[in-house]
């Protein structure tokens, strides 16, 4: 099989999902409204008007989905908790029926010898908090810590590793700066307070979970190696700026307690005394989501200080994203160079590709094979990578793209909810069996 040959015996392989993308049951058992419910029900916001009202119906079919994971042979399952299912308005007493669902899920995982790795926030903010300003409002950071404490109290006896935030750069940029994701605001640089308040919420949540005995806590950042379009000084300067916004804005504060200098100046009015120390609350690992490198050139318009450029000469996914496995090795070794001894162990918490519908998916097998090889090279180069999670177990609701992009190891017929494992599922299962 080969893809897991030579990996350390402790190396963890898992799959990832997110609540709004798979759970469905949007109005059941006391769940509140999230910003993604509002956004997807607003005409013109999602492709074909698709919503996550039913999605993969995981809320009712979770046991079957856990059986699929057990058949796959994974070590761990990274999923997200739906904040509005636990606190319908984002504050106050919890909804016990929502917590009961996650109790069942965690217990079901442990019965199948699969570690539960919950993410507290994967973009489905309670709408009631958004009505009060969402992540533009500093108060949301404290509501997030309260929510973290609730789930820590309920699940902490069985959950050993927690993830606070998923891809805060994407939530800030697509949700608040450009408006292509919920909550659909187009504030440009006016969205920067969202970055700080998410990070502050992360630090406060770390403290809340730690006070409840959490063994491991991490944050998951979307990271990309940034390539200048040429050796021209203007292109290289644009690439450095983009790297600051996309990577260092969220890595530097949690690893060094500082913002990049030019961003610290832009955030000066938002940061208060003590905030950076809170954000620097120690984490045990860094989650890295990787999909592709980014090529950047000097700006040709006034709105942004950089232009996005196409990467030619490589395959692309159905999403149009360039497939560059070596970019993952470049990213991981670059993180090691940048942060040195300050870099904690790394988990690849998402990596995968969208393809056309179908169960015969050689493209996905080659994609996963190439990226696992890049992880192995990075470990051999001295980067402490502890695990790799495939995005995703199931075809699901792919945010603004609705059901048009299929990332799953398992095909889902959204009319019948029938699950059909794809060739890539069987390939990975065989690799895991061979590893033993």
From TrEMBL:
Q: Tell me the keywords, alphabetical order.
A: Carbohydrate metabolism, Cellulose degradation, Glycosidase, Hydrolase, Polysaccharide degradation
Q: Which residues bind substrate?
A: 21, 122, 166, 291, 391, 398-399
- Give the Enzyme Commission number: 3.2.1.21
Q: Does the keyword Hydrolase apply?
A: yes
Catalytic activity field: Hydrolysis of terminal, non-reducing beta-D-glucosyl residues with release of beta-D-glucose
Q: Which Pfam families match?
A: Glyco_hydro_1
Its cellular-component GO annotations read: cytosol
GO biological process terms, semicolon-separated: cellulose catabolic process
Q: Is DNA-binding among the key words of this record?
A: no
Could you name the active-site residues? 167 (proton donor), 350 (nucleophile)
* Gene3D superfamilies, per the entry: Glycosidases
Q: Name one GO molecular function term.
A: beta-glucosidase activity
Name the protein family.
Answer: Belongs to the glycosyl hydrolase 1 family.
Listed name of the protein: Beta-glucosidase
